[in-house]
Amino acid sequence: MAKVAKSKKTRAVSVHSRAARREASPSAGIDRSLENASGAEDDKLSKKFLSPHAGGISKKKKSKAMTRQQRVRHERGMERAEADMDKLATKVTKSHKRARNIKSRAVSDRRIQNGCARY
Question: What is the pTM of this model?
């Protein structure tokens, strides 16, 4: 014989279910007397942490000198970065040159359409 599914009406609501979590509101057991307390210390701390200089978490810098291998690796990286910057500069100049050519063609096309072409 086939098994019959349990009736949902007879089963209790699971503690881990969404409905059970919604029933137990987190604000139900909070003491409201602390809301109006003055926070003079909190204001000082918040000003300290909200200043623009302490705006983020930063890593502490190492003051130790680099080893030879680290120095060589760093120099290679800097050389690659220079080469990449040179490539980027040449690409930008070529792009500007192409843009100038396109604009000059557009200007000459407009002149032709308006009948102001010089032959």
Answer: 0.38
Half-sphere exposure of 24 (CA within 13 A, CB side): 8
Q: Residue 77: what pLDDT?
A: 96
Q: Per the structure block, which two tokens stand in for 116?
A: 């102001």
Alpha-helix residue ranges (DSSP H) falling in the chain: 18-23, 40-49, 68-114
What is the identity of the amino acid at 68? R
Domain count, the chain: 1
DSSP 6-27: PPTTTSPPPTTSHHHHHHS-TT
> Residue 52, SS3?
helix
Residue 17 has pLDDT above 60, yes or no: yes
For residue 88, being part of any structural domain is answered with: yes
Look up tokens 């623009």; give the residue: 52
